[in-house]
Amino acid sequence: MHIMEGFLDTPWWQLWFAVSIPVILYGIYKMNRLVSEKREILPLLAVAGAFIFVLSALKLPSVSGSCSHPTGTGIAAIMFGPAISAVLGTIVLLYQALFLAHGGLTTLGANVFSMGIAGPLAAYIVYKAGMKARINFYFVVFLATAIGDWVTYGVTSTQLALAYPQGGILTFEGFLAQLKVFGAIFGLTQLPLAIMEGAVSALLFKYVVNVKSDILVEMKVIEAAVVRKLRGSSA
Amino acid sequence: MTNILDDYALMSPLRHRNNWLKLAIVLFGLLAGVSSRSPIPPFFIAFCMSFATVTFGKAPLSLYVKLLLAPLSFAAVGVFIIAFFSGSGPEILSFELLGYPLDVRADGFELALLVLARSVSGMCCLYFLALTTPMIELFAVLKASRLPESFIELSMLIYRYIFVFLDMALSIRYAQTVRLGYSSFRRSIRSLGMLGSTLFVRSWEQGDKLFLAMNSRCYDGKMALFEVHRPVGAPELLLTSAYFLLTLALLYLTKNASIV
User: Fold this and answer.
1) Chain B: nearest CA to A46, how far in angstroms?
2) B47 vs A218: which has the higher pLDDT
3) Is the CB of residue B130 less than 8 Å away from at least one CB of chain A?
4) Would A5 be classed as within a structural domain?
5) Which of chain B's residues have a Cβ under 8 Å away from the Cβ of A104?
6) Domain boundaries of chain B, sorted by first residue
7) Is residue A4 part of a domain?
8) CA distances (Å), B112 to each of B104, B107, B119, in order?
9) Residue A62 class from Cβ within 10 Å (0-12 exposed, 13-18 middle, 19+ buried)?
10) B3 chain-A contacts, CB cut-off 8 A
């Protein structure tokens, strides 16, 4: 859910930049520490970023006939954690704005906040909580990705409703009423889309576990015991 | 998405102009568009940028029109909501849809038109940059901009690998399509999952190889770039300042104007 270039009015796009930039800087700080510890991580982060971009450039089939794009940030959050996802998300969003004209430069702050920060953070929390509760790994991936997408879509609707409340002036009632309208209209496409992306992500992890589970263990995404259990049950 | 806009930028004659000048033009257009209070300056900016892209930048006109129409669906939905729900002035249009009353009010309509104009002008500015300036040229600008070194380094590596993986993804997808992998909804979900996982595993192996290759060539976290020095010519400077002045004048003149 990219907000288009020029869509947010003057106080709002600066505001979302102000909110996003500290998080991105924190992400860069964490990334620098990780890279100085383990130098081989930078190329891996690079291919992960490219992977997210390519994934988001592929069209996802949709029931309503219209095609839409997966965000891919849920997968990044599960693998690298929310701070580094924010940095990767920023770069990917910048490239999407420049190559595919999805989103824009003035709305980059708002888009980074919804897709690079809020969504991955939600996905990460759901993932960690689900793994702690020992629910099935694939189901947790599905839930984390879908909920991450929904949070992204909720945040985007909130951003739009804040900028364009009902009645023209920002009041709480006007904001709430407009949030319902944006939520309802975007929800038509976003709710099923999130479920689909969740399904694709769960399948993706299933194939990765079957083919090359040592990557996931090495990155501390899942424990070796969980992999053994999963492979045992799938064989 | 088979053609990335970068391919056209590499062929554009404007590629060989000063990068800072182009960046300044685009940033000026974006900021002027966003801060205007009337739809006239954004449309003026959109017209100028489109003209520059197609005439000076030699972007194919049919491609350009197609590109402009692509993101309009999001804009249309947003603008409709703003037109119908955010006004409070006198009604100018009112009807019932499925028993639910809908009305467009004057100030809501004006706001919607303004937002549409801003979006279009923003798109035109972005397309000007995308269709005339290849990313490689922008990296030199990024390097000079004091952004964190690791961030730029990461952007450059990501840029390189986007093309590798895009090729890979397209050929996998082609192979899957030929084998009826996308013939039904369930199958396409399954195929997409497989595509993603293969891409992930392959990109992982590629990352390992990349580390090895770069390390054996003494990579120390910095890639030196050569920035070509391109002086700004007098006609460019003249044209740009005329455009800036005209836009600023329009912004000033339309600051209190109302069109409804």
Assistant:
1) 5
2) B47
3) yes
4) no
5) 30, 122-123, 126
6) 1-133+230-260, 146-227
7) no
8) 10, 9, 11
9) middle
10) none
Helix (H) or strand (E) holding A101: none
Number of domains in chain A: 1
The CATH number covering residue A22 comes to 1.10.1760.20
Q: Residue A106 in contact with residue A82, Cβ under 8 Å? A: no
Between CA B216 and CA B124 the distance in angstroms is 44
* A47-95 tens-digit pLDDT: 888 888 887 776 655 444 344 566 777 888 888 888 888 888 888 888 8
Contact between residue A144 and residue B68 where contact means Cβ atoms under 8 Å apart: no
Q: Could you read off the pLDDT of B121-165 as tens digits, one per residue?
A: 888 888 888 888 888 788 878 777 777 777 888 888 888 888 888
Q: Could you tell me the residue range of the domain that residue A172 belongs to?
A: 10-234
Task: Write down the ipTM of this complex.
Answer: 0.80
- Check if A166 contacts B (Cβ < 8 Å): yes
- The neighbouring-strand residues paired with B105 are B91
What are A101-158's pLDDT values in tens digits? 677 788 888 889 988 899 999 999 999 999 888 888 889 999 999 998 889 888 888 8
